[in-house]
Give the backbone structure.
Amino acid sequence: MLKKKINIIFLIALLVISLLIPIVNAENEVNVETTTTDQANPISTSQEEVTITEGDEYVFQDTVTIDTPVDGNLFIMANTVTINTQIGGDAFIFANTLNIEDNGYILNNIFACANTINVKGVAYNIYSIGNTLTIDGFIYRDVKSICNTLNINSMIGRDVFTNCSSINFKEKPNTEETPSIASYGSIQGNLNYSSDNEISIPEGHVSGETHFSQLQNHTFDISYYMYSLGAILVSAIIIWLIGLWISPKLLHNSSHPITWRKALQIIGLGIIVPIVITLLSVIILLIPITSQFTILLLCVLAILFFISTSAAVIDVNTMICNKLKITQNLYKLGFLIVTTIIFWLLTLIPYAGMIISLIAIIWGIGTISYNILIQEKSDKTNLDSDKKTSNSEEKIEEPKSKTEKENSSDKSTNAKEEDKSDETTNSKEEIKSDETEKNEEKNNETDKNKDENSK
């Protein structure tokens, strides 16, 4: 438990301090004139120029030696680091060997991750991870360390929290006079340590109480697995809901099935994007004007790694739902829970689980990058093509409408002509019927006249 807590404290401290402290270029230097008096000749004086680095300093080399005082924080990544001057802020060191010499004075904290750490100077607090930590100087407050061997040869002002295999104290000198506190290894506060077996602590070296907790063997702990499963389930569901709220199309990509070309693009983006962001952050860090954006890029990269696994599980679940033609979001949520549990079980397989987790991280980052960089362009082209096709269809419909209008006009004229012809024929028939009636009347009259004459 102590090991986990110190890891968490170390990472949180790195992040919080880097966010709170403004990034300043380390090239700003001032010259401070100091006057020293020669003891042999008190009248004559000589002036020495001491160069002080103002602001934070960033160093990335194989071997680093800091001899110039730094009025700010110190960030070093190297093989061997030697500090032989005063540091006005915190020191963040990633190295194989870290040596803080007698003149080394860290006003604030030391955050060190190194194989061998030797402290002969002065520091406020030490937070370290490594193989061997040796303290020959003076620590004002606490020491929190995960190491194999802890050597205490001087005074620690307060408490010690350590997870180690052995703790060695420098013994008190055998003299009649009372030895000084700094002449032997001592802890003025409490000693809290965790180890496989209890370590014998000599009397008189710890002023406070000594607390020992034995490291437990790796046994099956159901609570740890339940916590792991719950964390990945909650993460996947929350990201799925956010994606459903922001862009539902990403969760209904049935119109964009997975092809070999798309799969290769996703894998390529999942590998290239983290490398590009890392290189950009290093380049931006070296430019004084844009160095403050380094933290932003690193935060983006951390977020990508954090949500990559959930994004990969969501993408696989979407493909399964599209294959099974599932459209309701409630059923998709149920399948997402099942898919997440299956993925979690696969990650528990020895050796293969690490490979599956790595593939999921690459696929998740690639999926997010593909949807942001490539999918939007394809959607725009599809929208443009749809607009073009709709416009062409409208143009085709226009002449059709014109021909329909002409046909309707022709039909109306034909109907008018037929009406006219019907009227003429009807009028002719009426005239003929009138004439036949008149002829019949005449014939009847002639017949009557003939009858009268005959009589």
User: Anything to note?
Assistant: The first strand starts at residue 29 and ends at 37. The radius of gyration is 46 Å.
